[in-house]
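Thread: Newbie trying to understand structure tokens

Hi all, I'm a second-year student working on a class project, and my supervisor (Dr. K.) asked me to get a predicted structure for one chain before our next meeting. I've only ever worked with sequences, so writing a 3D structure as a token string is new to me. If someone could post the tokens and maybe explain what I'm looking at, I'd be very grateful. Here's the chain:
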Amino acid sequence: MTANRPLAGKVAFITGAARGQGRAEAVRLAADGADIIAVDLCEQIASVPYPLASAEDLAATVKLVEDTGARIVARQADVRDEKALSSALQAGVDALGRLDIVVANAGIAPMQSGPDGWRDVIEVNLTGVHHTVEAAVPTMVDQGEGGSIVLISSAAGLIGVGGGDRGSIGYTAAKHGVVGLMRAYANYLAPHSIRVNSIHPTGVDTPMINNDFTRAWLKHVAETSDAPTDFGNALPVQVVQVEDVANAVAWLVCDQARYVTGVTLPVDAGIVNKV
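---
Reply by user tm_fold:
Sure, no problem. This is what the structure looks like when written as tokens:
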């Protein structure tokens, strides 16, 4: 390990890695010296009104990671399918030799959806996170060298935001549930020196937010909500950038945070404190 490559010799498993936050996390950890196991669905989910990532997006992530000099194993897999996810992870471990870091990043925001949106967002954003950790833990425990797990939640995992649509309510419920997973796993895995934390971004400039459907939903909520609280950020920015989230991940998984576990870390331009 060197100051410029603090993750040299490490391997990181990242879900939702084809674009947006997942891609930024993969590229940042690769630049810090880690090899990458990248997973994404690369298919559409019917309840999600905006286009999800494609196989071409995942290939672009592969190229960006390789440009840093890191190795990468990329697979298409659905975090809702624990067996398929475990197989994708094992392919990466077989090729790269170990597993040190997990970033459970995959998520959807079917905000305008009804019952299907509730089901899908709970299965992806909560059950998918559970599957990701469960797939990774046996290898990390068997290695006996500790590790770091980061669960990507949301500011909506700490405050009660959203409209009345079932997909929106499900999003907030799932992101709150991620906090429970994080806290339980942090205690359960502490004897193995595996740290578990969650990150809670405000709106991030990704295809999940920056699309016509989500923008229209946000406008509708702002115009029709009876809530007395302004849910805008405290700092004078509308959204943060993917690199801001990736920087937080990079710190949590490196030795500078070696005694940080069980923490909900906002990267939120002050929205949680403001509310």
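A couple of things are worth pointing out once you decode it. The helical segments are 20-31, 55-67, 82-96, 115-143, 166-189, 212-224, 242-253, 271-274. The two ends are 41 Å apart (CA to CA). Feel free to ask follow-ups in this thread.
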